[in-house]
Amino acid sequence: MYDPDNVPYQKDPEDPTLSPVEKDIILALKGIYDPEIPVDIYELGLIYNIEYDKKTGKTDIHMTLTAPGCPVAGVMPDWVKDGVEQVDGVEECEVHMEWDPPWGMDMMTLRAKIELNMI
């Protein structure tokens, strides 16, 4: 369940507690980039939660953008939906845009900060 007090969702895709489908969902998200930032949306901390129902294959992605006025705001949710729905075991993906809490640079992973020369 989405917890706005515990964001972003940044589990390692190799986490043994994740199912194979959940790992593949994370890998699919890591293949999606904000065109203005050379780091994937997962490492940027834009993913707030992933809910996968193994019985139905329904997946809910709670995410944000770096800013509400982001130029890709109208298409990024479709990119996420399309990418996640390519994962074997996912039957349907619904993307929920969240603005609270707002995204901040502190939500980026260490890897993202290194790639952007912020460390």
TrEMBL record:
Q: What is the top-level taxon of the source organism? A: Bacteria
Which Pfam families does the annotation name?
FeS_assembly_P
Q: InterPro entries in the record, alphabetically?
A: Fe-S_Maturation_MIP18 (IPR052339), FSCA_dom_sf (IPR034904), MIP18-like (IPR002744)
Q: Domain MIP18 family-like, which positions?
A: 23-95
Q: What is this protein called?
A: FeS assembly SUF system protein
Query: What species does this protein belong to?
Result: Cardiobacterium valvarum
